[in-house]
Write a structure and sequence with these properties.
Number of domains: 1
Number of helices: 6
Helix content: 40-55%
CATH architecture: 3-Layer(aba) Sandwich
CATH class: Alpha Beta
Structural class: alpha+beta
Strand order of the largest sheet: 2-1-3-4
Shape: globular
Strand content: 15-25%
Largest sheet: 4 strands, mixed
CATH topology: Glutaredoxin
CATH superfamily: Glutaredoxin
Order of helices and strands: HHEHEHEEHH
């Protein structure tokens, strides 16, 4: 019984720390390329269109896979990002190259990206799929089981790949 209490307390403390890190308004330094592939703020609605054009694809139908994080990141947060990127590259390499699928890691502590916390109702680091049609988001899905599966890489990769495949398929309909 004592172990359950300690585990519960640890979980609550960890959740509190994650929420603090996401919503903290402390002094933020510029992030390096190793911390995030996001090189410009995502507040501009033309981002998806700009990205698609740079890849030679129209922005009429595409999916953006986001990993949202704060500027302070624990080992588990970095693992979620790495596993998500691996899952997408492993199964959706062609879609990533064509621009049908776009991978983005976004630091929500950057002022121009804070709106994502409200837009996607984020309470912790999250993986979100966003369908864009005609340059506008039409639907999105938070893959909220990543925290449950992060300790099992095979299950995690399968979860990301299955959810992304279904989301891409629905986007084509």
């Amino acid at each position: 019984m004592k172990i359950k209490s300690i585990t519960t307390l640890f979980f609550l403390v960890a959740c509190t720390v994650f929420i603090y890190l996401i919503f903290s308004d402390g002094d933020h330094q510029a992030i390096s390329a190793e911390q995030s592939v996001q090189s410009k703020p995502l507040g501009d609605p033309s981002l998806a269109e700009d990205e698609a054009i740079s890849q030679g694809k129209s922005a009429s139908e595409q999916v953006i896979a986001y990993y949202f994080h704060g500027n302070r990141r624990c080992r588990t947060c970095l693992t979620i990002e790495a596993y998500t990127e691996e899952a997408l590259k492993e199964k959706f390499g062609d879609s990533l190259k064509s621009g049908e699928l776009i991978w983005r890691s976004v630091d929500v502590s950057i002022p121009d990206n804070k709106h994502f916390v409200k837009d996607y109702q984020l309470y912790a680091q999250s993986v979100v799929l966003s369908a864009v049609q005609g340059g506008k988001q039409v639907r999105w899905k938070n893959l909220d089981k990543v925290w449950q599966m992060v300790r099992n890489k095979e299950a995690f990769l399968s979860y990301i790949q299955t959810e992304t495949a279904a989301f891409l398929e629905e986007n084509k309909s």
